[in-house]
Specification:
Elements: H1 4-32, H2 38-57, H3 63-77, H4 80-92, H5 96-123
Transmembrane segments: 36-56, 68-91, 103-125
Protein name: Fluoride-specific ion channel FluC
GO biological process, one term: cellular detoxification of fluoride
Amino acid sequence: MPEPVSILGVALGSALGAMARHGLSQWVARHLGEGFPWGTWVVNLSGAFALGLLAGVMHDGGGWLSAWLIYGFLGSYTTVSTFSLQTLALARDGHLFRAGSNVLGTAIACTLAAGLGVWLGGGLWTG
């Protein structure tokens, strides 16, 4: 059974992550337009990088900090459901190239961002 501190950490992190996701996504959409889901793209990319960085830094698992940051904040901050719905909307509206670009671009860019984060995070503890 999870410790109460971990449960509270996940709850607090989730609330803050959702607010951060909404705020950043809306800000990006206002500045880059809504013809492509740039807001969700930036959120998922920055979240993948942050998760990779934390994974590289938290060699011991992180304890309550891991619960708060990784499972709570970043779990709520990044969003596969919004990504999926926006991709389907692009396809429904006949923007098949944009829909495919969103799927492929997100998968590649987020994987690279997570890898960069792990590499940088691991680099913080070496030498």
